[in-house]
């Protein structure tokens, strides 16, 4: 089953402050969506609305055409995984997984046990006594093994070391391809996670500044390097994100359709056209103007 998420003119206000402002988008394919944004950009705010943990101040969220808030049928289809405070969690892993299995109909215990081994998680210790990274791995196991049609991971890698994060990413990719579902990953580890994303959403100060296919994003961005005057002439009508000058050499980051003819022209003018990464784009799209 493929779910459909419709977000329309969503705002979330705290007093006069807009944590989210007029955010609209649709997610309608079983893909991996990367939600990126700087600290305080509104990622957790948006995800908690998607998960019906809170209501928006304005605008609407619909999942499969229905408002999910206090709608048990829809909420069954949504799983919000975040780094919760486990300091009072005296239960052990086995018991926790058993509890999850009871209310997540697609939960696969065999797969969960496989992941527990993969992540090297102790089953005989109360959760609160696990290290931070291990607690995050527990969350990853729950999120993956539940196989919920809409699975949301809010910075779930927190505290995991690099090899553990790598296991998480590999398992996520593999399980998503075998059991396609909507997976939303919020992160600021962009350069490390970009290859996971089918689509990218960038939030900046509560506003959605980009929602594109990952491939499109990467092909639309380019760096143009060469003699200053030639670079200026070539990029004058383009959307410039960033400029670097070194002596008489200039490197300009542009974003927009660069036609084959344009690329050819660049070469004829002795300019070098290089790729930019999602991380570059993220940094320059969300730069403060202070
Ligand atoms: N209960 C609240 N009362 C007032 N302001 C809040 C509240 N919750 C969140 N905010 C503000 O809303 C903004 C967005 O917060 P949010 O947690 O959604 O950001 P984020 O993108 O998840 O950040 P991070 O990457 O640091 O986790 C922040 O400026 C935050 O201070």
TrEMBL record:
<dbReference type="GO" id="GO:0016887">
    <property type="term" value="F:ATP hydrolysis activity"/>
</dbReference>
<feature type="domain" description="ABC transporter">
    <location>
        <begin position="5"/>
        <end position="230"/>
    </location>
</feature>
<dbReference type="InterPro" id="IPR003439">
    <property type="entry name" value="ABC_transporter-like_ATP-bd"/>
</dbReference>
<keyword id="KW-0067">ATP-binding</keyword>
<dbReference type="InterPro" id="IPR027417">
    <property type="entry name" value="P-loop_NTPase"/>
</dbReference>
<protein>
    <submittedName>
        <fullName>ABC transporter ATP-binding protein</fullName>
    </submittedName>
</protein>
<dbReference type="Pfam" id="PF00005">
    <property type="entry name" value="ABC_tran"/>
</dbReference>
<keyword id="KW-0547">Nucleotide-binding</keyword>
<dbReference type="InterPro" id="IPR003593">
    <property type="entry name" value="AAA+_ATPase"/>
</dbReference>
<dbReference type="GO" id="GO:0005524">
    <property type="term" value="F:ATP binding"/>
</dbReference>
